[in-house]
Specification:
Length: 327
């Protein structure tokens, strides 16, 4: 399911006396502009070496700094170590407020603790962060930041963990699976960690609930969840299919219903006027919604390929939630 891409590890250092003009700070800013992720001080991961970043790195070296660049292939401790009795840490990533309100994270936490994991809960959407802060009294630093769920998942897997479980509750099980699939597609680090078990628990407590296996390593973890009488599914990748017509891209919206609001990359861009709806993009902008109505804000939204956009629908009359969980 997850398409791997090369990642680069950048390690750098410079003597403070050789940095009178703050080249280290400018390098950090360039790394952030390139979408890089920081592991620790002076150690970053990036998916690409942009022209801007290359220029700053060259300036850094000319100032007397040292830079080491290498390809990076992430590995979990469980993959490289066969020692018995090791602690197994599992992160329960919660998307949306509903799973927390219904206490599903507590139920799942007990199940995973029962099979030998140490469990830590991490909210990965704005609404989940708000609800989690109410439950625990802890305010997340991400509440004041524009971070996507994809970005937050990448930051989580850079931490020390042995398994990742995404707890989600979509409008339907199918739409929830599609949303998480889009989110995983837009990760940079997580998609490369094929040895890390990754599963999704979708719509727990509902008739169409399911355990979704996102990589081969996750299948064994899913099989260990015998206490949950839920079907185990492995999703298809066809939901991202984009048709190219000249300079235009056309992508069908899955599970659209009349009156639904259309959300692209976290922004309300239009409304469904039928159950067959297609988003049309050209030159990095949405130019039409066939079978729907395009809002003015949708025309101003900038995006790359429709294959990489995160698209979902929500009921128009649903309780308003300020959720920044899309890419």
């Amino acid at each position: 399911m997850l398409v791997k891409r090369s990642l680069f590890l950048i390690v750098y250092d410079i003597n403070a006396k050789r940095d009178p003009h703050g080249i280290r700070i400018r390098l950090v800013r360039a790394l952030r502009r390139a979408g890089a992720l920081q592991i620790q001080r002076s150690v970053w991961i990036t998916e690409s070496i942009t022209t801007d970043l290359s220029r700053i790195v060259d300036e850094f070296r000319r100032a007397g700094g040292k830079v080491k660049l290498s390809e990076w292939l992430p590995r979990s401790l469980g993959e490289v170590s066969s020692a018995e009795g090791q602690m197994r840490k599992l992160i329960l990533a919660v998307n949306g407020a509903e799973p927390l309100i219904e206490k599903w994270h507590v139920k799942l936490g007990k199940i995973f603790e029962g099979i030998g994991y140490t469990v830590e809960v991490k909210p990965v959407s704005w609404s989940a962060m708000v609800e989690y802060s109410k439950l625990t009294g802890e305010r997340s630093d991400c509440l004041s930041m524009e971070k996507s769920t994809s970005r937050l998942l990448d930051e989580i897997v850079l931490d020390d963990l042995d398994a990742l479980v995404i707890l989600n509750s979509g409008r339907t099980s199918q739409s929830g699976i599609i949303y998480v699939a889009q989110t995983l597609f837009n990760t940079k680090v997580l998609k490369n960690m094929t040895s890390l078990p990754v599963i999704q628990v979708e719509s727990l407590g509902k008739p169409d609930s399911a355990v979704v296996v996102w990589n081969d390593s996750g299948r064994r973890l899913a099989e260990e969840m015998r206490e949950l009488p839920m079907p185990v599914v492995t999703p298809s990748t066809e939901f991202r299919k984009v048709t190219v017509n000249g300079t235009r891209e056309i992508r069908q919206i899955q599970y659209a219903e009349v009156g639904d609001l259309i959300i692209v990359n976290g922004k309300k861009v239009g409304e469904c006027l039928s159950d067959k709806v297609y988003v049309v993009a050209e030159g990095g902008s949405i130019v039409d919604i066939m079978g729907g109505r395009l809002f003015r804000i949708g025309r101003r939204l900038k995006l790359g390929s429709l294959r990489e956009a995160i698209i979902k629908t929500v009921p128009k009359d649903a309780k308003r939630q300020k959720d920044r969980s899309a890419e």
